[in-house]
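Dear Dr. H.,

I hope your travels went smoothly. While you were away I took the liberty of generating a structure for the chain from your last submission, since the lab meeting agenda had it listed for discussion. I wanted you to have the full record in hand beforehand rather than looking at slides cold. The sequence, exactly as received, is reproduced here:
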Amino acid sequence: MNLVTTIVTIAIALSAVLAVVSFWLPLMNPDPEKLSPYECGFDPVGSARLPFSMRFFLVAILFLLFDLEIALLLPLPWGDQLSDPLSTFIWATAVLVLLTLGLIYEWLQGGLEWAE
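The corresponding predicted structure, in token form, is as follows:
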């Protein structure tokens, strides 16, 4: 048995054991307070199924996009160690320009305005 097979076998066995333990170990004692839609101490006034604003999702997606941009550009200072640092700089600049143009477009379309 080689090393990869051993590691895969251990991972599958450990996953199965953890799944079984997490299913059987917790004590399930639901009471009416825990089963209510709000657990903050207030009585529900309306429906718990109110729709979210699409503006909220747009701002959340923009946040994730720019967060991903930071993660992609984080190793940029080590790009000068490559054989062709100019191409690294050009690609990073292209990413920044594209995201900046997208932000300007969203700003001009009013996608970042909270009040209507």
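Two observations you may find useful: The two ends are 65 Å apart (CA to CA). The domain at 3-109 is CATH 1.20.58.1610 (Methane Monooxygenase Hydroxylase; Chain G, domain 1).

With kind regards,
E. W.
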